[in-house]
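User: Need the bound-state model for carboxymethyl coenzyme *A:
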Amino acid sequence: MNSEAPAETRRDTLTVIDNRNGKQYEIAVKDDTIRPLDLRKIKIHDSDFGMMSYDPAFSNTASCSSKITFIEGDKGILRYRGYSIEELAEKSTYLETAYLILHGELPTASQLTDWSYHITHHTFIHESIKKFLDGFHYDAHPMGMLISTVAALSTFYPDAKDIFDPESRRKQTYRLIGKMPTLAAFAYRHSLGMPFVYPDNELSYCGNFLNMLFRTTELKYRPNPTLERALDILFTLHADHEQNCSSTAMRVVGSSHVDPYSATAAATAALYGPLHGGANEQVLRMLLEIGSVNNVPAYVKRVKAGEKLLMGFGHRVYKNYDPRAKIVKHIAYEVFDIMGRNPLIDIALECERIALEDDYFVTRKLYPNVDFYTGLIYQSMGFPVTMFPVLFAIPRTSGWIAQWQEMLLDAEQKISRPRQLYTGFDLRSYVPLDRRS
Ligand code: CMC
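Assistant: Bound-state model below.
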């Protein structure tokens, strides 16, 4: 049965009847959405403010229109600019994908050379940044160091305030994508008490990152090509994910027209949380806490009792297997072939097996997300757990900048400023201190 109205009677509107007073309103529908401002005309009295929509956590509110990333959560589909994540992971590189995300099209050969050249030649950081990295305690979390140092970059590049100058935006884009790995690697080296390793322009984006992290006495660091490629694919998978918590932070903070370094620091802070990019770190801590395959059922029981979350499971948008998690699981075995099997994989597989059969997880459509297996790979590659969210932040920078730029150039956008439902006291008189109980 066709549920659409015949063409002659069809109107792209919604008829709303206010049962409080019987009044009827017609509200425009476009792209299956309504504009909440149109609800404002719904009032009981002329002096009323008018109706608002209430949507804590934006569960059903589109805050922007975007051409960057498409997700169809029920089917487990993820595409950047129309290209499937599976195809990009197989055939593209992180830097090429970052170009695609930012520019909307895949680069030509000369555009890619030019792009890679500029990113590579913006990897050095001002020597003063090393000084305040030195000020951090030896066990400072690298995400805290990254948030602070990326914010500090704004003080070195005051031209970044020219956010409506395309040339300035281009330059800050090179700098941000180029310098994030350097800041991250320096934070890591600081935590080890090891000397900083300067960027090597002859290496790839990921090869150079591995060089800055792991080089010791060798004159020339040569990354293992399989590990370099594995990291590059992981970076590609993490490049963007439409309007998640950190992209929203980037857009909201950027909407005040602050410089992109400050907005990126805010986005990085949003990513740090255990419900977002910090989940990969928490997954590993959880697997260590579980300790053995035999302990999985007892742990799952605690999850079902509401005592714990099964970290790396569930997603606001995916109600099916996260397509990134499938690719990550495959990469894990390639890395294990070189670095040896991570024994925690057996605990992870058992968690997944039990969860995918258990009614609690099935009815709530909780599947492994991207963070479930990444930690195992990062641990096998030699990263400490505190670096895991940093490994999410570096590649996500391209997505954040693309979201920020799209927001700035969107005529419908202005400073973000949600409404609230005030549920506090009505006007009351100030009580002097000696009369308060
Ligand atoms: N373990 C156990 N129960 C869960 C989990 C989980 N990981 N995730 C959701 N639930 C339950 C939740 O308790 C709720 O149950 P009930 O209906 O009985 O109250 C139901 O499933 C719906 O969950 P929700 O919290 O309303 O879903 P949400 O969309 O608000 O949260 C989420 C999404 C990702 C924050 C959540 O699934 C979660 O906390 N997962 C663990 C953290 C995690 O892995 N985060 C990484 C997300 S993917 C990477 C990224 O993009 O950041």
